[in-house]
Structure formats: C-alpha cells, structure tokens
Amino acid sequence: MRIETSTWPAVKRYFDEGNDLVILAVGSTEEHGRHNPLGVDTIAPNYLLDLIEAADPSILIAPTVPYGAADDLVGYPGTLSIGYRLLYEVVGRLCDQLYDYGARRFVLLNGHGPNIKPLSQVGEELDRRGCRCALMNWWLMAGEINPAWRGGHGAGEETSAMLAVDPALVDMSELEGERGEMGIVNDVSDALPSDGWSNVLYKGVHVGMPRDAVRYASNGWIGPDHAKTASKEWGDAMMRGTADYIVDFLQEFRRCPLPEPLPVRSAGATGTFAEKPGAIRA
User: Beta-carbon neighbour count of residue 244 at 10 Å?
Assistant: First the structure.
C-alpha cells in the first residue's frame, strides 16, 4: 500500500484498523562508476519495495527519499548530497508525522552507507518514544544472506542489482580497458597506497585519510568485487533473496512488543514529540 497512490481516508483506515508498521526507503543520488546510473542507491531500494509489496500488499510504504549524505562524492557531476544533518532532520520530521498518524514500527530501508549514522540517530530517538525502528542496509544484509553477494560501491554487487532492475541502465562498455583492481587508481604515495574508502595501507594496517573519492577513484566504483564480474543472474538471485528475507523479517517485527517510552534526553529531529501529552521532559 503506497502512500503516494492512496487517499488520506485509506491511510487513516490503515492505522484505525490497528496497523502501525510503515516502511520508509532512503537512497542517494550519486556516482556509482561511469557505467552505472547516479540513482543506484535509490533505484535498488525501490526495486526491493516492488518485490516486498508484491509479496505483502498490506504493508504501508512511504515515498522514498532520493537524497542522502554523499559529500565525499560531489566531485563527480550529478551527485546531489544533502549531508548528514539535513538528512537526519528530513527523515526525523517525516517519522514525526507518521508517528502522529499512528505509526509505531518503522522500517528504514537504506541504500547508502553514509546514511547509516543519521538514520541510526533517528532510530534511537524513536526507541525513546516507545517505538521500534529497524534499519535495513540492503547491500550489507545481502552479503550476510549469501557471502557470494557481498560487494563494494558501484562494483559487482550494485552493478548486478542494476542489471536485475533493467540491463539498459548499465553501460558495461565503460569498464573496458580499465586499470585498478578495486577501482582505485591513485595512491597518496608509493609507501601509502589507497585501499578502500578513504583509507591508506601502511605496514599492513589501514589508516583513515578522509578525502573526496575523486582523488583516488577516477572511474568512481570502489570494491573488491570488480565491476566486470556483475551479472543479471547474480542480481536477480540477490534482489529476490533479500526481498524474501525482509518480508519474513517483517512478520516477526509486527509481533514483537513495543518498548516503554524513556525520558527525553534531547529534542533532536524527532524531538517535537516532547511537547505531546504524556511525554516526559528531562
């Protein structure tokens, strides 16, 4: 049941009938290599939502947020980032309103790594209100469901996901003749090679060295699963397997008890609830 295609009386009826679960997907608009569309982190969660809805049409699904925290990728044209704080405030405000309508079980279906921190903060605040919040980072979950699916940014895993959605979205010819085993082509120095997201490797130890990705990954994809290894078969199995897992999880999530509200420690993005009747202010 999609909020954007439902009438407000239908949404009211959903909550009046005792339902309190809502899924809110949060993506990003950012580069994923020269071969992938900029919307990978939004397109993949939306595809999972289609599969989830087909399996259980009764679940209420909010419109997807297509922007995330991607400041380190703005060196690639087309990347649009709203940063950590604004993402936290946007998602927190949306959850506030859904709470007012009757939502108490929130599923944040996330498509982008740096979104995890602000979404976790929203989830912690919802917990203090007496709600449950499940943060589902689909690409990490997929790698746990089946280790063969594990991958990096715009590499084999995410490229396979796009091939499952629509092969026309991917231009594999952009990977021909490419150098760099992990999509990384620039090192800080001979003694400090780049190794993964904003890391350098020194004497076998990873040291963080924050910098824009365009400095060390000219193509834009980064990961141990080379983008050339992607396939539609991989993507089909992975997306179906991940959606099936989520549908199964939601059945248990609906049954778990809600926590008791805690004293409010800070206002924050979802802090408007502190003004509501029965809320406790520290």
Answer: 14
